[in-house]
Amino acid sequence: MSDADKTVPDTPAATPESGPQPAPAPAPEPRQARMLTVRVQRSGPGGANARFDDYRLSVGPEDSVLDVLDRIRVETDPTLVYRHSCHHSSCGTCAMRINGRERLACITRMLALGTDVVTLEPLRSLPVLGDLMVDMRPMFAHIDPDWGYVRPVEKASTGVPHGVARYTRLENCIECGACMSACPVSNGTNDMPSAAAQAAPQGTAQSAPQAAPQAAPQAAQDTGESPPAEPMFMGPAPLAALNRELARHPERREELLHIGKGPHGERHCRRHLACSRACPSGVYPAKDIMDIRMMHGGGKD
Ligand code: SF4
Ligand code: FES
To answer: With a 6 A CB cut-off, is 70 part of the ligand 2 pocket?
Structure first.
């Protein structure tokens, strides 16, 4: 299935009983600047000496989280560590947890969050290099650099060559890591978010403590015995990339499925769907994982 056939999970669902649901009315746009507290997790590499620092400043209606971080770094604290590049949701480098949810800082407007205190934390599941910056290498370790892709921007700039009816969109992934952070298997919480947390409007979710990636099972910790080493889950983004490669190269099906069903592959997925909810780019990696599972006769745990 191409990405074009997929449904972005936040789209209101149609049911046989109700028919298509109308989109919720947008919240009124904030029009005036407000004083806010920005609470930033600070730490060294590996999350050493983690603490929260508060910065109080006036925030305008157009200010993004990234705009505000830039102001704090220039005007108040040049030691603040975070990553950014494009400032328009293309590069994926500014992903972080904002009020407990994975988002892109460059397109998240501070006042639209609706809270007086905005809490910023690094992504989970990936090692912290410092403050809000994480090491993306564990995610890329499972994505072969030779796997291909076609991005919509390339489609727009090159056009469709003579004799080609249309492009099939294979990926929109901006490699931000939001899905890796949100996945309860990858981030070690191994639990569904509570119903209250799922129902909370964006910006009001309470921040949960940073869990150790791939935490050891609790029962084994209680007995004092060392659990057998669990193979690590490669995570949603690499499996989404793998499924795109399967679509491009059906002749390599066996070789690629061998990776997808290997010790780091889809067998770890517990269908939380948190990856698809967190993705800012409409990739829907949970669907890719289920495609891979079904391709080798799976579908059952
Ligand atoms: S699948 Fe979505 S959330 Fe995951 S890395 Fe790609 S763009 Fe980010
Ligand atoms: S700075 Fe590039 S996605 Fe946010």
So the answer is: no
